[in-house]
Structures are given as structure tokens and as C-alpha cells.
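DATA SHEET
Item: assembly model
Revision: 1
Owner: S.N.
Input lines:
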Amino acid sequence: MRYSAFRIFREGLTGNKGWKPVWREPDPKPEYDIVIVGGGGHGLATAYYLAKEFGMRNIAVLEKGWIGSGNIGRNTTIIRSNYMLPGNEPFYEMSLKLWEGLEQDFNYNAMISQRSILNLFHSDAQRDAFVRRGNAMMLAGADAELADADQLRSELPFLDFDNARFPIKGGLYQRRGGTVRHDAVAWGYARGADSRGVDIIQNCEVTGFDIENGRCTGVQTSRGAIRAKKVAVCVAGSSGRVMEKAGMRLPIESHVLQAFVTEGLKPVIPGVITFGAGHFYVSQSDKGGLVFGGDLDGYNSYAQRGNLPVVEDVAEGGMAIMPMIGRARLLRSWGGIMDMSMDGSPFIDKTGVEGLYFNGGWCYGGFKATPASGFCYAHLLAKDEPHPTATQMRLDRFVAGNLIDEKGMGNQPNLH
Amino acid sequence: MIINHPLLGPRDAAEFIYLGDAALIDRPDWQAEDAMQQFHDYAYLRDNPAGPHQELWYHEQGDRSWLVVTRDTTTHDITDVQLARDVARSRGRDK
């Protein structure tokens, strides 16, 4: 079924009886060409692009819970491509371009809103660093725009420009950045994959990998064994515990990142605003809630909930830069589990086991990467060679010292 | 989280800085044949378990001791706290 304005009109006149479930609920077949482990945004995007761009059909996506129940349902919905390093920036810019065409591509309303993202700076040195980043972005074909304090005063008068510790000297805009209705991304990809014959199998937990003589031949699941020519793991957040079943240690720690939303307010914040120096970023959802977050809690966790010191830290950051939010009441807070890699950058690569592929290590940048991650992973699975924008996202890059370390923090995952 | 410091008693975890897996105590032998590989594994690879995890915490806003804390990563329950010095010595290190 193709969605359109005409369709809504017709269904409205006929009692909305024509809407059908958006994907099937098939039982697993005994064998597939490709089994994707993990029915989150990246796994579903991978299945979608494998079917649509690379002509593969005999694919299953296995999901432990319900699709989209992991980090694609727990993020703060921001899209952007304001990275700097050559191993990252072209990839994220490709992702942003895919976002721009996504709704037409998969015929699903993901409420993509390019309302801009702004990174604030507070000193000459920080401005120089942002100018450099903006130039790197433009070299990769992205947009970047430096704004001085006067411009920001007129555009965002509610910020505390004369904060004693972090006076606002300006900011780096990416006007094409913005927000997306996150769940709709999972649903849109699932629908697009399902309609091309991909089996999406929910409530199917992978309990082990069948590895013989250095070759992966399938997976054991809570719904029986499934053979596969290729097994593609795509479970960021849980990579540690899933790849442990394949006997693999990773350059990853799992950490918890909290996010918050207030009660609905009238429109007050036009785009996404980040106050990196104070560990705070915020946007306003279409429903009116202020969606914001800050830093990691800082210790290994699989608990999907954080602790109070970070709640306090984020609230202080928000009050410091944007005192007007002090009267908004917090509606919810939640935590998501991040694969924090040793250099803050992700992996899309083969593993040491033939037929076993790995996608993970997304740190807190997984959501914006969803389309390109799916596309590049599909490319790797279909052609057995990396997509040109993802050649550096290798699992073995630490052996040779080819880190993609945007922040220059080294192997301290809770600082990236 | 409250960390029960062996010398100071219960302290707020916010007083501490987190480093990571306590396996970092076991520094490889730099003269070993495969020292390059061992140091790569030591510096970059992690067990990252979902469950009990031994980890290093530094009491920065306190007595500046390093602790080995055993904590469940699925519940944040802390079951054991020792001075890192004692743990290192029990594993044959001289300090």
C-alpha cells in the first residue's frame, strides 16, 4: 500500500477500514542468505538497502524484543553532519543527504525537520577550533556557517550571553541539521524491507553463533536454529554481550546516557542548540516538549537508567545557558546504553570469523548515522568490500594506530 | 551510587573518577615476544560484561586512593570494594 494524501482522503471517507498492518509477522525459515541480528534502526536500514539497492531478498532480521525497542526509541532525534576527520565526515554527510531524501524514498512520514543545529563557543581558541571544523565540513560537501554573538543575540535572545564562566562569543551553525521522528524511521525501514520480502522476526533472541573452522554458518535462537550464508550483527549497546557469544572481545565499553523531556510548551526554541562546554544540548519536539541531555554517567552500565549526579549536572548546564527553562517541569527521563568505542568512532567491518560481520561502536552518534550505516553495511554484506565512505571504520584500526579520534581523548571511552 | 570506601566508609560516587576495567592493573610484560599484541589488547580490548564487573575508581575529592569496586553493570549494585594497592599486591605486584 502506498501512502499519499489521496489515500488519507479516501480512507477518511470510507471509515478508515482499508489500512493494513505495515509488516508481516512470519515464522523463521530454516535458512537465509543473510541473517541480520538486531531489529533496530541500523538493522532495519541494512535490510532495506540490501533489498532495495543491492537486489537481495532472502534476508531475515532477528529482534530480541519488538523492532525499534532499543536506541532508536531512546535517543534525542538529532541529525547533523558536523564532524571533522576524513574517516568520519564524508560518511555523516552521506547520511544527512540520505535523510533529506528518506521520506520520498521509503514513502513514510518520518517528520524530518531541518531546523538547524548550533554549537556555541565561548573563547577565541574555541572559535578557532570551530572555524577549522566548519572548513572541514565544507570540504566534505556539508554546510557550515559561523555566527557571531550579535547575530545570535537577535536570533536566540533567551540565551545567557553574559554568563560569567561561559560568555557566548558565537556559534557554528549547520542549517541542514535538525530532528526526525525517531520511531517512524524504524517503522518506515521495516515496512520498506518487509514489502520487498525481508522476514522481520520479533521476539527472537540470538543465543549463540554456529562457528566451525573459523566460519560462521548460522545462529541459535530462542525460536530454533537458523542457517545463514552471512550473519550480520547490528546490536549497538549490547555488542559486548552478543559478540561474547562468538568468543570475541571488542574495543568497546557499554555506558549509559540519559535524556530528558519537559511538559509541552509553546514554540520557544527554533532549532537544536548545544552547549558543549556545559554538557547540555536541547531541542523542542513538535509536541512542544523540550528534549535535552548531557554527558554520559561515566561508568560501564547495561541498566538503561542513570543516576542523580548527572541529572543535576544536566539541569545546571541548562539553567546556566538558558535560564528561561527553569520554570518548565520535567516530564520524563530515561537512559540508553551506548557502545562507547576506544576512539569515539564506529565500526562497520568483517570480523576474524568468515561470514560474521559487525556493525557497532556508535557511541552517542548512532541515530543520525542510521541511513548511512544501513547503506554502508548493506554494501559490505553484498559486495564484501567497504563502502568508500566507511573504509576507515575497521575493527583492527587500533593495531596500526589509525584511530578516528575526533576529540583526541585516546582509549578512555567515557570521555568521548 | 554509594561506594563503601575501605578506609573512609560510605561515600557518594560523585566524589570519584571512573577509569574502567580493573584488568588495567595487570600491565603486560614489555619485554615479551608478543608485547605489541599484548599491549594492544591491554589498551583497547575489554570484556565489557553484563553482570558483575571489577573496575577502578579514583577518590579524587577524598583521600586520592584508587579502589577496585565490584559492581553489577545491570543493576549498579556494589558488592565489594578494596584498595587497588591491596589487589595489586595480592596479584604479585610490588606496589
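QC remark: The first helix of chain B runs from residue 35 to 44.
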